[in-house]
Design a protein that fits this description.
homotrimer; alpha+beta; Rieske Iron-sulfur Protein; Naphthalene 1,2-dioxygenase Alpha Subunit, Chain A, domain 1; 2 domains; 7-stranded antiparallel beta sheet; 4-stranded antiparallel beta sheet
């Protein structure tokens, strides 16, 4: 077991916007313990959690304006990590008194952290206009921490055949037999497509159509993976033969960030273009999705991870099925990107 | 601390018969995580818990007939571990899609697992006819997991002098002074004998005699150890001077299987030839024995084990007493058997 | 991470007198698991917890007179660790059947353990006459175990500036600005002095003065550190301009003993020379101090320790403030003493 090498000079999801307030939270991201908070300016701020003085946990400190005061001896750090106040005695501030700060960017309800030594490149930020346009979309969101390696989450999403067994209420008996699976790479994007024409309509979309629901629909799911571990899902149904945009649709972000080599953070957002003002439905949808992640996907990935005993998947010679092709491709693309960065 | 070498080409207890149903259980045996279940045929089945596809935990899957279906992507394995169904897409089954299977044998209410590369030899199975003959014997049973090395359990049983201190309600003050301890090796069997002539009768056997109970009895306990860690206890009392078979007797199996180098499974069964139909007594006996293992022997062995910090007993130079001779002999016999196997 | 080297041929606090009774407790001191109890003679006794026979935990045994009987097979050890009884069979006692014993000394309500290969030197015992003179002083006491390296506790106490941030109810806003910090070494003693003239009186001392309390006082705190980790605190207030001994005062012992390289035992006693008979106040004082250690200092030191990941402070290049000078000096003195011992 050697330390993992992560892709650098890229954005990783650090938090959902709603998680960050004037009360800092501690989150370990790519192995580094980080205090995350929102300053009085409204900006989101990230400082290494370890005070450079006596290594106290900064996230237990108090926020003043955009500054964070250490809970142990009161050194105050600004959003860039510079010490701006020593409240003791004559108050001299040693030059070295700096907390490492991290560049954050907040878009579409997601707080991203730049990871790398090159300047942060905001043009690389993956956007989800659906989550920032309440006139046309309504969204719900959630978070879980998973005791498993972060790439296992992408594996899970790039092969939705698991729904029949792990989420039986989301799928119908034998639906895998009726699904056409395909995969293609579009540049650095890996796209998995699941197509089930003329399938009995599921509860979610019957609800979307309302009284007018057809008994059968064409069901299309598209999963788009982007390095390092950003996934977009588009799921929709149409009356048989219609074009995808004619039916009710849902747009999902699944964002995975390594916590350590063997654990990760999993953020999800789920927007829909139907029943926009039905708050009760939003509540139920959020709860049932969060429960599926907590009780089904999460435990499955943790059990997988335990059986892998810290080894990489490749080292364990998995027996592969055709439905593994998208996740294998994503792993290969990511490894190529990392190898290129390590070599340069 | 090097990895332990276990005796091979032998049977280890894997479960009590009553534990195995159509809902699989996960049990780690000799370091391997194993899914154990009973198929529709009534046969007991053991498959390595790690699905060869994506390493999902098979024991969380569903049983169909004698097959086990993986809970993640639905591959179905038969009792021999061969993949017999891939429910996704065209359903091709890769040749390598095999789960390791283990040979089990069920006898006398005990499920044994063969451990070794030679063909399973059923003639080696240790039999307990007492547990399979309800006309003449009634038995109770139980199980605990112990965070201690498996040989410490045999040590415990081969030196029953501990009862006076660890189980004071089972022994009378000073009973060790009145006991004649002896030990002999019979081939590969190690037999410890505890003989207390003309001893005040204990509660258990006073109950066995009923109104006719003598005040004093000859008390004989015989502990027979067999490699790797199968123990048979025969405990009985007689009116002073009578032959052992003339009094009420109890027959016990204590079966210990390594879980890991430092933890083990402890199965016990206890048959008696008196009060055969007294279910209330059976219940109380089961509960008090199970409690003794859980609250007294188990914690003692775990504390011992913690003090040994993963080292072998020999390395720690124990101070030995005459009453240690049986357990030392058993350790020596086992080591000789293992050494012979390793050399061959 | 190499094993820590502790100062030897010195006394470490092992327990508070009130902790030791005829029911032994297990406490790991400087890496060794030790059974501590009070014999029928009233003497406090310390034996290595691991029975030399089968490594059973002696602290679970029973005390007879000054002897301790092993809970597993009944070997009985006297206060010097010699086996004095084998209750089994003919009762022979092997010569090697000795438990390691430790030299204890009980003074001023504190049980000290000598650590080293030279004869115990009672003249080295740090005395607290305040805790043994109920006519003039009343004291309260407590104990916590801290999952942090023992020197972090001395660091905490030698820099009381943390009170403003960690114990805000003990300090007033900005009190660090009004404090004159100084430090000096007196032989092997390190003394930190905190002087706040004409400070608003705090609740504790307003209570001490009673109806006659002045609104402002001169507040002096003196912290005296002695190797390896014995601290004496003297805190008092006077009407502005008066001599220290004219006001109410409190005397504290803070005694820290390594449990392992990364955890420690923290014993404290707090004597006062006012409101001697106010038991209600004693109760509240004990509870609020114990809570401060449990909820504020303890967790802070544990978080620090977690951020240090087992590395020594020096290796992590802390940014130092003038208020760190006393704790740095104490660390240097201790290191010099240890280096001298290792070299000799």
């Amino acid at each position: 077991m050697t330390a993992p090498v992560y892709m650098t000079n890229t954005w990783y999801a650090a938090a959902l916007s709603d998680e960050l307030t004037a009360t800092p939270i501690l989150r370990t991201l790519l192995g580094e313990p980080i205090a995350l908070y929102r300053g009085a300016s409204g900006n989101v701020i990230a400082l290494h959690d370890r005070c450079p003085h006596r290594f106290a946990p900064l996230h237990k400190g108090q926020v003043f304006g955009d500054d964070l005061r250490c809970p142990y001896h009161g050194l105050r750090f600004n959003a860039l990590g510079a010490c701006v106040d020593n409240p003791i005695g004559e108050g001299k501030i040693p030059k070295a008194a700096c907390a490492k700060s991290y560049t954050l960017a907040e878009r579409d309800g997601i707080v991203w952290m730049w990871w790398g030594d090159q300047p942060a490149d905001e043009s690389q930020l993956r956007r989800w206009p659906e989550f920032a346009d309440p006139e046309r979309y309504t969204s719900v969101e959630g978070y879980i921490r998973v005791k498993g390696e972060y790439q296992l989450i992408a594996d899970n999403l790039l092969d939705l055949s698991h729904a029949e067994f792990l989420h039986p209420y989301l799928a119908t008996e034998g639906f895998n037999r009726r699904t056409q699976y395909s995969m293609e790479q579009q540049g650095e994007l890996v796209v998995a497509r699941n197509w089930r024409p003329n399938e009995p309509i599921s509860g979610l979309f019957a609800f979307a159509y309302g009284d007018d629901a057809p008994s059968h629909v064409d069901h299309l799911s598209i999963v788009k993976w982007q390095a390092p571990s950003t996934l977009r899902l588009e799921i929709g149904v149409t009356r048989p033969g219609q074009a995808p945009e004619e039916g009710p649709r849902s747009y999902q972000a699944h964002l995975v960030t390594p916590e350590t080599a063997h654990t990760c953070h999993y953020f999800w957002k789920w927007g829909r273009d139907f029943k926009l003002d039905d708050h009760d439905f939003s509540k139920k949808l959020q709860a049932s999705l969060q429960l599926a992640f907590e009780n089904e996907d999460g435990p499955m990935i943790e059990a997988q991870s335990e059986h892998m005993q810290g080894q990489r998947q490749e080292a364990l010679n998995p027996v592969l099925l055709p439905t593994d092709s998208a996740s294998l491709r994503a792993r290969r693309v990511l490894q190529q990107l990392i190898d290129k960065q390590v070599a340069s």
